[in-house]
Fold this protein.
Amino acid sequence: MTYLQQSLPAERRQTIEQNALGHSITESSLIDQCQQCGDWESRYRVIMQLAKQLPPMPSELCCESNQIHGCESQVWLTIYSQDQRYYFIATSNARIVKGLLAALIAAWQGQNGDFIQQFDANHYFHQLGLSKHLSPSRSNGLAAIVATAKQHCLKS
């Protein structure tokens, strides 16, 4: 698998820099927003809206070598390393999974490897109020995404 790319091409950098994920939409702002929601349906709407914030993934990156296995839905992930920071581009064919990917990217975008390695995704999704509403297969897929990112952020 070739999830990890060693340099961030200029056109991808521009897409990432212009996107709200990891900039104005961060781990803490998303936790705050979800904790203000009164019920599961409101949190679900936040995640579905967050899915719309994912920048489009170029079709050439939606290939077998970037596909995450262990997910019920199709998920593609590319990780770029630049100046000891990591940048993520991802997509899925399932809108809820796109929202969950966006939540992870909001927390991880531009962070260093230590942050990503220490990141507790279970705790994060608990703080977002989503953990108990994810099906076992969705939780397993999310775990596969997190494990893949952590594994590849170790290699740089």
